[in-house]
């Protein structure tokens, strides 16, 4: 299926860029006229994916994080967050609630949160080469009738 619109940005794995990525995704999604709840779900999922890349992919150095946003005719928004960091040894284990490779400040709920706010979540990772998180969410068309 071919996207009807797309955008891509990349940024350094600095924590300040997490808010930038959230806002960029929300602005891109705005063309679908999402509800406030849908916008917040998108922002939360992007925040989790980008934070994972910042904290876990590059634990001891700065690296590049890429965000790709695509929109399809059926109202599906696809969000891809990619890094070229340390990768995930065991993706299935990493997707378990409360599992973390971070310090005690980390909840280990990132993938669980992404999954709960999105319709689909795919995680691909190669140790030493990086991780790609692909999320999809259908934005429901709102009724736009009545001469207002």
Automatic annotation (TrEMBL):
<dbReference type="GO" id="GO:0004674">
    <property type="term" value="F:protein serine/threonine kinase activity"/>
</dbReference>
<keyword id="KW-0418">Kinase</keyword>
<comment type="function">
    <text>Binds to sigma F and blocks its ability to form an RNA polymerase holoenzyme (E-sigma F). Phosphorylates SpoIIAA on a serine residue. This phosphorylation may enable SpoIIAA to act as an anti-anti-sigma factor that counteracts SpoIIAB and thus releases sigma F from inhibition.</text>
</comment>
<dbReference type="Pfam" id="PF13581">
    <property type="entry name" value="HATPase_c_2"/>
</dbReference>
<keyword id="KW-0547">Nucleotide-binding</keyword>
<protein>
    <recommendedName>
        <fullName>Anti-sigma F factor</fullName>
        <ecNumber>2.7.11.1</ecNumber>
    </recommendedName>
</protein>
<feature type="domain" description="Histidine kinase/HSP90-like ATPase">
    <location>
        <begin position="37"/>
        <end position="141"/>
    </location>
</feature>
<keyword id="KW-0749">Sporulation</keyword>
<comment type="similarity">
    <text>Belongs to the anti-sigma-factor family.</text>
</comment>
<dbReference type="InterPro" id="IPR036890">
    <property type="entry name" value="HATPase_C_sf"/>
</dbReference>
<keyword id="KW-0723">Serine/threonine-protein kinase</keyword>
<dbReference type="InterPro" id="IPR050267">
    <property type="entry name" value="Anti-sigma-factor_SerPK"/>
</dbReference>
<dbReference type="InterPro" id="IPR003594">
    <property type="entry name" value="HATPase_dom"/>
</dbReference>
<dbReference type="InterPro" id="IPR010194">
    <property type="entry name" value="Anti-sigma_F"/>
</dbReference>
<keyword id="KW-0067">ATP-binding</keyword>
<keyword id="KW-0808">Transferase</keyword>
């Amino acid at each position: 299926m071919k996207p009807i619109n797309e955008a891509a940005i990349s940024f350094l794995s600095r924590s300040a860029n997490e808010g930038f990525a959230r806002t960029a995704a929300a602005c891109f999604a705005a063309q679908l006229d999402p509800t406030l709840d849908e916008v917040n779900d998108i922002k939360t999922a992007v925040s989790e994916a980008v934070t994972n890349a910042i904290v876990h992919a590059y634990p001891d150095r700065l690296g590049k994080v890429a965000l790709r946003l695509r929109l399809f005719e059926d109202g599906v928004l696809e969000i891809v967050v990619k890094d070229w960091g340390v990768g995930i040894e065991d993706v299935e284990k990493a997707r378990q609630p409360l599992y973390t490779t971070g310090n005690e400040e980390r909840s280990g709920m990132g993938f669980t949160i992404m999954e709960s706010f999105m319709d689909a979540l795919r995680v691909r990772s190669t140790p030493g080469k990086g991780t790609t998180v692909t999320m999809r969410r259908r934005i429901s068309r709102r009724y736009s009738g009545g001469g207002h």
